[in-house]
Amino acid sequence: MKNTVKPISLTQYLVEHQRRNGSIPGDLRLLIEVVARACKRISIAVNKGALGDVLGSAETENVQGEVQKKLDVIANEVLIEANEWGGHLAAMASEEMDDIHIVPHRYPQGEYLLLFDPLDGSSNIDVNVSIGTIFSVLKKLDNGVKVSEADFLQPGRQQAAAGYCVYGPQTTLVLTFGDGVAMFTLDREQGSFMLTHDNVRIAPDTAEFAINMSNKRHWSAPMNRYIDECLAGKEGPRGKDFNMRWIASMVADVHRIMSRGGIFMYPWDKREPEKAGKLRLMYEANPMAFLIEQAGGAATNGKQRILDLQPTKLHERVSVMLGSKNEVDTVTAYHREAG
Ligand code: AHM
Ligand code: MG
Q: Which contiguous run of DSSP H or E holds residue 175?
């Protein structure tokens, strides 16, 4: 994507945005700057790779029963350490921690809650393929009660901000405060994130889909119908040829969609029917759905808008279909028709 704006720093963007739109109060600005700083540190660790002894397994398991990579653990620690002292947060939650992390008593408590997937696309860490950090910001419910997991269980439409940072050939931070999407590229010489795109828009139509095709035999009928029709190309009911991409890092797949459109799907499948999907609602699907909608796209679980789902637990899973609006509408219509 070509640069479309004057490359001002993240700080200048946040200050000017607050002056113009009033959507980034001081504490939220501090929070985002601290998250961005943590992402810079993670980016440095990712870049060192084998030289920094950050590759390979940490030989521990997270709450989802997945083996943690060293970088999963490092990125989680970096985000916690960076965020707990600033006074802007009440608590944090992460893919890599069973329970919420309440800001320790020695620091002031703020009114925001931060959720993150510290290193998304873990299977790509050791093979030098793009990975990223995903985060979501909520406001603690003003109920005068000590912060608990219940404070986090808010539908995604209530997010105050969301973003991701992709560690690829460039390190790019993508942010929304509910009034559009902006992209910042890390200038390594200056050590700052610089605005490189503002008002990012996703075209409503696309001929590119992203899904793990190896799971096809386990999908539901409407999911198979949608993909079969894409595969049938020009001669099929869709009347056009589709292309496929699958990076196996949601951050990188979503970033491609932000850059040139497309649809990303990780649907429910029959292997573990009791699980709604593979991806997690609160720190993967919600922030991505917020960003995608803010860029003019759509995000559903096949039936409902993701941002309207009422979470019932922190590590809840969800089926995800997001990206170019007309394609998401089509696959969602097939699911609704099937009942
Ligand atoms: P992670 O958070 O443990 O890295 O898992 C989430 C990732 C997504 O980034 C990606 O879209 C998906 O899992 C890849 O799954 P698969 O291994 O089925 O291709
Ligand atoms: Mg993830």
A: strand 171-176
